[in-house]
Write a structure and sequence with these properties.
about 375 residues, alpha+beta, Beta-Lactamase, Heat Shock Protein 90, five-stranded antiparallel beta sheet, about 25% strand, elongated
Length: about 375
């Protein structure tokens, strides 16, 4: 980057000037192809007004705007809440510091927020112009999010186990007392009420059993083909939704077998696909609902702070309305559901089973596309 800044300073130093000595324009594209070749987004910003005077192709791709459009905008127009960037550039251009680097969240117009590490430097011989390099920081964000999920999951598991046991003990007593009371009631009509108590106790017992289920079953570990798992899930879901729903196979046939518990993996994927199918109810009625099951190989990925050389990259993608924004960050929490009548346990169990296989499950959702991604180590 230093070599580029020195090169830019030589080229931009010869820019056209008006009689007052002010720069008429800064156009370095014909003179410095190195900036165009850089893989990360690069902007040249000039005071006053924090105007963008140059953007490389990587910036066009990342921010979704053409170079010409960006050169007509200030940073405040380009990013929502760019005050932090303005302050960093100002401190560099006024020579308070030689360079600034900081993690920031950029919000381009009509785009998802971008987590990035920004490096800002001045250009010798060209006062008032700063070079801004944006290094996408998604890996760090993903790692921090994964760590946060693991911590919350661990705390939730302990809470669920304790809560389930606390509920289960008195629940048996309530059901037994209702049965005894039923035998003592003189009128048959009154037994309707004891039956309500018994049935609701049974329903709660089933719920408690589901909460405790992931911690009871031992692993039945063996070599398995993930596509056998997906075919089982596909047949089950299509049997429940025989029309209006298309489940597309997008498999990588070269995937090696993985070591795991087939029943747990079937249940994990089934919970995700079944949730997707239920979210697609309106599209199923119209006949254009679609779920894509995609498998790929991922190399050199980080799962639970461990570098995995080879991993299964499984995606379940649907064209439904998306997950409601107010629960998007909490969908793996127990008892959180975006559907009326949902138990809120399906995704919690899926996450538990995937984590027991030393894997990771995450989700990205927007209207028209929800993508659940499962990463499982292969070697």
């Amino acid at each position: 980057m230093r070599r580029l800044i020195r090169s830019v300073s030589r080229k931009v130093g010869g820019a056209d000037r008006n009689p007052a000595g002010d720069e008429v324009g800064v156009n370095i594209a014909p003179f410095c192809p190195g900036l165009d070749m850089m893989p990360n987004p690069v902007l040249l910003v000039r005071q006053p007004g924090m105007r963008v005077v140059f953007a490389n192709p990587a910036a066009e791709a990342s921010f979704g705007l053409s170079r010409k459009t960006m050169q007509e905008q200030s940073l405040d127009q380009l990013f929502s809440g760019a005050e932090e960037l303005d302050g960093m550039i100002d401190s560099v251009l006024t020579r308070h510091v030689d360079a600034r680097r900081q993690d920031v969240v950029l919000q381009p117009a009509q785009r998802e927020p971008m987590h990035a590490h920004v490096v800002i430097g001045s250009i010798d011989g060209v006062p008032g112009v700063a070079l801004v390099e944006v290094l996408p920081n998604e890996q760090k964000v993903r790692s921090e999010r994964e760590e946060r999920i693991l911590d919350l999951t661990s705390a939730n598991k302990e809470l669920i186990r304790n809560l389930a046991h606390e509920i289960k003990n008195p629940l048996g007593g309530i059901r037994g007392a209702a049965q005894l009371l039923e035998f003592e009631l003189p009128e048959r009509g009154l037994r309707e009420y004891t039956q309500v108590i018994i049935k609701e106790s049974d329903r709660l017992q089933t719920l408690v059993d589901r909460l405790l289920e992931p911690h009871r079953h031992p692993h039945i570990v063996g070599e398995l083909n993930i596509h056998e798992v997906l075919e089982r899930v596909r047949s089950v879901v299509l049997a429940e939704f025989p029309s209006g729903l298309e489940i597309v196979r997008d498999y990588d046939a070269s995937l090696p077998e993985l070591c795991g518990d087939m029943e747990q993996l079937i249940q994990a994927v089934l919970n995700i696909v079944h949730n997707a199918a239920q979210a697609l109810s309106e599209r199923i009625a119209r006949g254009d609902a679609q779920i894509v099951l995609r498998t790929r190989v991922a190399r050199q990925v980080t799962i639970a702070k461990k570098l995995v050389k080879l991993a299964l990259d499984l995606h379940v993608i649907d064209n439904g309305p998306g997950i409601p924004e107010d629960i998007r960050e909490r969908i793996f929490y127990p008892l959180v559901s975006g559907r009326d009548g949902g138990s809120g346990l399906g995704l919690t169990l899926a996450q538990t089973f995937v984590q027991q296989h030393e894997g990771l499950i995450e989700c990205e959702s927007r209207p028209g596309c929800t993508d659940f991604r499962i990463l499982l180590p292969l070697r």
